[in-house]
Description:
The complex is a heterodimer.
Chain A: H1 2-34, H2 36-56, E1 65-71, H3 76-87, E2 91-97, H4 100-108, E3 114-118, H5 122-127, E4 132-139, H6 143-171, H7 176-183, E5 187-194, H8 200-230, H9 238-241, H10 246-276, H11 285-307, H12 315-320, H13 323-330, H14 342-348, H15 352-364, H16 374-411
Parallel strand pairs in A: 1-2, 1-3
Antiparallel strand pairs in A: 3-4
Helix pairs in contact in A: 1-10, 2-8, 2-10, 3-6, 6-7, 8-10, 8-11, 8-15, 10-11, 11-15, 11-16, 15-16
Chain B: H1 2-20, H2 24-44, E1 53-59, H3 64-75, E2 79-85, H4 88-96, E3 102-106, H5 110-115, E4 121-127, H6 131-159, H7 167-171, E5 174-181, H8 188-218, H9 222-228, H10 233-262, H11 271-295, H12 299-316, H13 328-331, H14 338-351, H15 360-368, H16 377-386
Parallel strand pairs in B: 1-2, 1-3
Antiparallel strand pairs in B: 3-4
Helix pairs in contact in B: 1-10, 2-8, 2-10, 8-10, 8-11, 8-12, 8-14, 9-16, 10-11, 11-12, 11-14, 11-15, 14-15
Amino acid sequence: MDIKEHKFSFIKKWISIARDMNLIFSHEFKVVFKDRGVVIIFILASLIYPLLYCGLYRNETLVDVPIAVVDCSRSKLSTELLRHVDATQDVKIVSSFSTLAEAKEAFNARKVHGVMYIPSDFNKKISTSQQATVSIYCDMSSFLYYRALMQASNYSILDMGKQIQVEKLNAEGITGESAEIVSSPIQYNGVALFNGGNGFASFLMPAILILIIHQTLFFGIGMIAGTSREENRFHELVSSSLHRGGIFRVVIGKCACYLALYIVFSYYILELIPHIFNLPHIGNSVDIMFLMIPFLLATIFFSMTISVFIPNRETGMILFLFFSLILLFLSGISWPRSNINGFWRTFSWIFPATHGIQGYIKINTMGADLRHVSFEYISLWIQTAIYFVTTSWSYHWQINKSYKKELIKADD
Amino acid sequence: MSNNIFSSIQKTLKRELSRMLSRPIYFLGTVVVMTFCFVFFLTLFNEGQPNKMPIGVVDLDQSTISRQYIRNLDATQQAKVIMKLHSHKEAREEMQRGKIYAFVEIKHNFAADVVSNRRPTLTFYVNNAYLVAGSLLLKDITYMSALSSGAVQRQILRAKGVEESRLMGIIQPITIDTHLIGNPWANYGTYLLNVLLPGVLQLMVLMMTIFVVGVEFKESSSHQWLENANNSIFGALTGKLLPYTFIFTLFGIIGNVLLYSYMHYPLNSGIGWMFLTTFLFVLASQSIGVLLIGLTPVLSDGVTMAAFYGLLGFTYAGFTFPIEQMPGMARIFSDFFPIRHYFNIYVNQALHGVNLSQSISSYVALIAFNILPLFVYHRLKNAAIIQNYPTK
């Protein structure tokens, strides 16, 4: 009898939990879709930002960067070298000057982003078996200019160097196989294992995509919380939280709403967008999904924790928008993680974005599987647990505060 | 009349100053955020270039030559050998874990092949998913390998009796002498901070401009705001925004001083020109803020629009990916971002140190942004009086 009753109340309790959570869940959906501001952040921003940034960075590498040349040698060799340089994909020779000063003028007017200078003794030095020097001047306003010019000149000069070398060796009486041995006793070649095309979008966009998910969730949840605080609506949650443990129903109910939305968005942002824009996508989609679950949960609970302290609907974005940039650099995608000092590296572990970006890039761009990203994966689950607890605490505190305020108001 | 304007500015200024003390957001959105960014970025890039990045080696040869080569690699500026691995597969996995950014593979019998002229191959792999680390390491390892190859070449040629004076002309007939204009050591701090800090400044100017104006509409105090300014929207806006012009210009100038005097980043013009640019840049950003909040007197919409615009500014400065290499449609918008003009002036003046005339059009553009508030002049005034906009 006792056992039966106990069992019955147990079931009843679960039914009530499920009903409460369902109520909070569907209520939160209404809140999201009724608020224009939240719809813009959650839905419009998630939809448009990936398209926009992929569009802007669509050209992965620089093509035909305009450069000037000063050929004081005017020899067959120098002409050939310049033709070689011009033929590369990276740069294009748009003007040719007779003095360096003239070239400098064009450079300063930013008509060209680099200058190649071949001195008058170029041919003579080569014909007398001395080292000849070619000078290049690079525009450092964007490192991509610098890289394009270095690539083009290195490639062309090495190539020509090899030809000259063979001729010289022949002249020394070293021919055939023995010339080959001398010309490259050790052969070496560098291979880019991932992002083999050196693409800028392929490098940056995966990080941006994760950041879009992280930041839209953060600002959207912040706006919802700020608005309910402004309107003192937290007490609406009181009825369900008054039961013992009821706070979990509130927190989980709300979380389920955001999670449901963002599972759909994540599919769009992390599966469709890379397909549409030809971004690297060699990872296993199931692994990505497994990583995304703790990432989304950690981000949601992290945002909910902070959101309690956001007094107004706009505050979150005003004060934390700049943080998108900080998160991008903390993730270690650009400035390598190994070179971020200990303080900032520890600081970066606070944010789900850090592990989300690293984990996603490792799986998506480098084809790692889940066991290779165990550090990120476990960290995200730890964050989920910690931020779930902090969310529950802060919600409990905020709801009680709001409830008391309401009581005082009722007394008046 | 002018007296009237002056008094309206003065009264609004007084009102705004007392409002600034009323809520923490005013202090957080100006002093705290800017200070945090200075500290963050200056301490993040203080190395200049990422040095001693972790790499691995798969040394299947274990010879004197291969060990010497690894020691040489370890001595390069950018690389540090932290792992000795046993196979390509293992090395690749360590790379996928993100523990190493590159690895070199030295095959069995490498040394024996070198000695007996069988031309062995050295292969190295870099991870370009981290483009900065990947390309710097590729450069360093290639250089090191070329040196190693050159050393062997020299031995062979000497043995064949080639004259010493002609050795280098045969080993490396053409050398490159590289000049990096304005940033001779390819310092990432110089490259990034000169745009990132103004970018954050622009973002915060926009946010705070929209906030301080928009909050009047949101809290339905706009009527009182205008009344206090003798019903002059010009006076009301000027008095309200003046404290922020001052604060943000001050922080912009602190940024200039930090970069050019403290970090000694290249400055090939007078620092005064950068101060002036910073001041005009703050004004231009404020004007855009007024335009955005004028288009929609709803605070949270204004903030969302500014967020969108402000973040795009980092892309449209054109310092990471040059504007002229973007798709045609995207290019035309860059001129609508003050940071683009700031960037142009910075490149011309600070980095290249060219004649000021080169930058005049950018200065003019920055000033021209101040016309923008005129477009929403009446709209703002009407909205302030009628207060008929939704607060949400």
